[in-house]
Model the fold of this input.
Amino acid sequence: MEKLTFILYTIFIVVCCNLFGFILSLASIYLPSLSRYRIQKRKIKASVFYSRLPLILFNIFLLIIISSSGLYFLYDLFDPIVRLDILIIFLQFFFILIIDDIYFYFLHYWMHKNKYILDKIHRIHHRATTPIALEYIYVHPLEWIMGYLGPFLAIFIISIVSPVNILAFWLYQFIRNVHELDVHSGFKSYLSKYIPFWGESEHHDLHHAKLNGNYATTFKLWDRLFKTEISNEKR
Done:
């Protein structure tokens, strides 16, 4: 696969996921019938969401630019031939997901424990105490840029052994984006019972409500392992 085609397909995945997040966010605001599926019953104000939209759109635009630039220079680390090797795809996808998630846990924990970073950078994201889907990227640009180093770290490690399967990377991009939309959607989770340690909406929604604990995102295993998990009983 040519470099430009690879980049364009990656951008397409990012745009489609965020477009879905925008639709889901509007549904949260304008479809009262969905309120019975929400974790919190607090009313969502459309005006608040629209006031946050410029930063959200700026971050998405910046995400596309930085992703494209990064993939352009790192293209040689990928296998240019699309290979439907299920085992390799799964192993590389899972490795990227795990490395990214461990990295994010410690980054997120540090952003809460460092008072300066919390007040000047991470506090923006926590203005959403009752988040909806697209507010996953309502953050200071430096925050998501720091967070975006995780998957690239995993890609570098994999490339030491073998080229990264393009399909494994795309699968990671899709699952990671959809999961971020899910845990910020405010809707009750239904898939978590089928996936061990899967970070569900209830887990992350409690983090936004308390501004403390539940720092993990994709796998809540890290909160249990490092004793930072909080539950409804502790609210």
Remarks:
- The CA atoms of residues 126 and 208 lie 6 Å apart.
- The chain has nine helices and two strands.
- The chain has a mean pLDDT of 91.
